[in-house]
Amino acid sequence: MPLLATDYSPSFLSKNKHFNTIYSSLFRKTLPVKFKRKRIETPDDDFLDIDFIENGSKKIVVLCHGLEGSSDSKYIQATAKLLSANGYAIAAMNYRFCSGEINRQLTTYHSGKTDDLNTVINYLLPNYDKIYLVGFSLGGNLILKYSGDGIFDLSPKIKASVAISVPVDLKGSSTALKRLENFLYTQRFLITLSKKMRLKHQQFPEDLDISFLKKVKTLTDFDDYFTSKINGFKDADDYYLKASSKQFIPNISKPTLLINAIDDPFLSTSCFPISEAQNNTNFNLMTPKYGGHVGFISKGEFYWSEYEILNFLDSY
Q1: Domain that holds residue 191
Q2: What is the CATH number of the domain that holds 161?
Q3: Residue 155 gets which letter from DSSP?
Q4: How far is CA 130 from the centre of its chain?
Q5: Same-domain status, 36 and 139
Q6: pTM of the model
Q7: Separation CA 152–CA 164 (nearest Å)
Q8: Per-residue exposure over 156-170, b if at least 16 CB sit within 10 Å of its own CB, e if not
Q9: 194-246, pLDDT tens digit by residue?
Q10: How do beta strands 47-53 and 36-41 pair?
């Protein structure tokens, strides 16, 4: 159990995984959401900018974006709008150095940085009766790891989680991203990541050697030279091993849904935790044939995956 059936049936164009991925990311039209930004201080003297929709509800959804995303990402905006219209308050995270302002510490964000997520949840606990977690791509890995790795005690107020398009095996996904078909995606990520490292070097010239940037050709290279080193890992393999959420799925004790499209260009076959779903009654897996990466285009203002998020959270 529980491998869930899916009714996602896209248009002809959206059956192309790259169209589904690119259109959703670059060309989707969404009306800006009116967030209220609050800054949360972290235990290591850094900060997180969280964008809220406060509508009087006592139940709140924490939205976690993907690599180089933010609360401005179209999938965050659309999900926030749909959920807030259906009775949920919203706390959209902006990870360190993702809110438009450089963070104070050398440490930035990564796929397994659950301490920052825990800081946000602790901030919310006094004011809300029910907390839900929703993550996309990297953010999905973050919430799955948080839910199962046992590092933090999970509050009974956390009721359910949904993760979309998640590289639960980071090493497998890094290998998939090296495929020629993914060259443009990779380059887009590397442009913004490299820019951030140059700014970090200005902030910490003695602690960050950016001469390695000329050696970076893939995201694995970037993780090897930068993500791992500034976040306390030995190298990319060590980071992938420790931060991947797949190994922690058997321990998930809260109702959880993962939706990974079979045609997602960012995912390897190891990113479909079928046996884990079959052996954990709390972990539900949907694997629609189409959808691309954080795509799932459908007619109307909101996409199929966003309605699935709403339906699952409403169940709990």
Answers
A1: 173-242
A2: 3.40.50.1820
A3: P
A4: 21
A5: yes
A6: 0.97
A7: 22
A8: eebbbbbbbbbbbbb
A9: 999 999 999 999 999 999 999 999 999 999 999 999 999 999 999 999 999 99
A10: antiparallel
